[in-house]
Structure formats: structure tokens, C-alpha cells
Amino acid sequence: MTTIDRVEIGLVNLEPKVLRTDAIQTFEVQETPVVTVYDSDGGVGIGYSYTIGSGGPSVIALLEKTLAPALIGRDPACIGGIWYDLLRRTNATSVGAITSLALAAIDTALWDLSCRRAGQPLWKAAGGARDHVEVYSTEGGWLHLDQGALIEDAVEKKQAGFKGAKLKIGRPGHEDAARLNGVRKAAGDDFQIMTDANQAFSLSEAIRRASILEDHGVAWFEEPLPADRVRAHTALAQSTNVPIAVGESMYSLSQFNEYLANDAASIVQADVARIGGITPWLKVAALAEAYGVAICPHFLMELHVSLVCAVPNAPWLEYIPQLDAITQSEVEIRDGIARPSNAPGLGIDWDHDALRRLSDLALVVDSPV
């Protein structure tokens, strides 16, 4: 039987390509835990997750001390079984961000290894629903940008074939309205505008803001409220015809089920890193499909491009480049359409020299617990 006999762990800190701000935070640095799994037949798989500036060393400690040692001697083909065993091993710290981010780094590495061994790209191995997806951009819609910059970016993206763009909201209502109005007039009614409040509003303020968004025909109202306020999201959804989108701040399948069962959202945005890997992400996608809801994932476009093409209910990929400094090629985007790689594995063309050069540490686990 093929077994896992070595695990390498690194942490790469990446500077964002542009200043990224929203209503509650600034994306300071991308801490990127990278896990490489080696099996006894010479197979290799690379996985990763990320933070936006804090918690990375805690993820690394959980990987080094608890999760990676538990992989030694396991059959790497048993991805689902390994995921559940590791979840049980971290029962006292689940559900939560640190555990999910650590699980995701391992799970994505195992999927990469499995796909490489099978000679298949991830988008086919995980379902193969289609070979392309429409792209919307967030990279030019950050909250600190003035109206002119928002308009310039939206027009530029439309000319490049992008079908939509996301604007961060959270300024005073009249300012947000003016910014939306400017982009709508410049980009036209056929250009989708997504909005994102990053959990900044109370229910009463979210209801008031939704009425403003209705006037501008936005595609969705993302994270209007704190993620743990399910009933408030239901009340908001019942008060507006603007689709409510949630999910980047949720860490388990049961949390998504609670939202869907309570009609609290009509778009889910599961993030592979924050949900704990590809294994649970696919379950969220299937759950959303059962409810007739779209999944439009958050961040991680280099990985999500394959997953949105694997499932039938994922109409959008979010454009925010995150891995340019440690990859040799970018996601293929032409005329606003992204296509996943057909290379075996996750489809990420890692620059191994850059990974070694930029890693702040390199830990190796190669002995049984």
C-alpha cells in the first residue's frame, strides 16, 4: 500500500498587489501556509491556505504539532477519511478559523497528489461540469478608492471583457450611493455590480442600505451583517429583492445549512481555505445545489477556478490575484472568461525556487506519532 512518508511545512508572506481595504479591515499581508506531502511511491502534492495578516504562525503550529504527524503512514488516496480523522483529532478547537486553515492546507495537498497520480486536472476529477467560467473583478473596488478610480477600473474591466465588478461599501449612505451611481452610468446596465459590506452593518442599517442598492440593480449584497446572525439575515432577505450573499466567514457545512434552511441567503461564498479544504467545499456546493442556490467563492481564484468549473451551480469567479509571486503562470483569462488548467493536479503552476526563497521557515515531519 502506498503511504505518506514525509510532510514539509512552510510559511510564505506575500505583499498584496494593491492596497486592499474594506469597511472593517485592511489586507496587510497574505500569510500563506504551504504543505507538501510525499508518498512512498514518489508522488508529491502541494497545498496551501492563507490569512490576511494574522494567525499564520498558529496555523503552522497546529500543522507541525498535531496534524502533519498524523498523516505519516496513511494511505493518501483516503482523502475524505483523513479529513474526518484530522477534524476529530482537533475536536477541541473546531469549528474555527485556525483549524480550518490548517485542514485546508493538508486537504488541498492530498487532492493535488491524488489528481497528479491519476493524471487528471482538479476540475475534471472533482466533477468536470464545464471548462470555463465568467469573471468579475474586486481588485479595483476597494473602499479607500475615490469615485474616479472606481469608474476607471470598471470601464477598463468591461473593455477587457469582464462581466462585472465588486464595490466595497461602508461609507456614509449618500457616498456609497454616489459611487454606485457613477459606476453604473459609466459601465452601463449590462455590467454586473456586486457590493460587499464585510459584516459592517446592523440589521436596521442593512435594511436601509438594501433599499439604496435596489435602486442601482446590484447583483448581490455581500456580508451585510456579522456572520453569526442568521435570523437577522433572514429578516433582511425578506425585506429586499437584492440577493444576499454570505460564506467567507463561515467554517463548517452545518453553518451553511443553517443559512440555507432559514432562507437567510440566496448566494453562498464558501472559501476553500476557511471551510477546511476541497473536501468540505464540494459538500457546500452540493448542499447549495440542493437548495437551488449558487456558489460564488471568495478569494483564492488560482484554486477556485478549477472548483467552479467542477460543479454546475457556480456562475462566477472572483478576480483577486494572490499567488503571482510564487507561481510561474497566471490563471488564463480571456475576454472575461477564465479557464482552468488541464495539467494534472490543482492547476497551480508553482515556482519552486520562489517558494523556497520566500518561505520564512521549513519544517519536516517524517516519523510516526
UniProtKB/TrEMBL annotation:
Any one GO biological process: carbohydrate catabolic process
UniProt keywords, alphabetically: Magnesium, Metal-binding
Transmembrane segments: none
UniProt key word Magnesium: yes
Database matches in SUPFAM superfamilies: Enolase C-terminal domain-like, Enolase N-terminal domain-like
Statement: the UniProt record of this protein carries the keyword Magnesium: yes
Sequence ranges assigned to domain Mandelate racemase/muconate lactonizing enzyme C-terminal in this UniProt record: 147-243
PANTHER family: ENOLASE SUPERFAMILY, MANDELATE RACEMASE, MITOCHONDRIAL ENOLASE SUPERFAMILY MEMBER 1
Record's protein name: Mandelate racemase/muconate lactonizing enzyme family protein
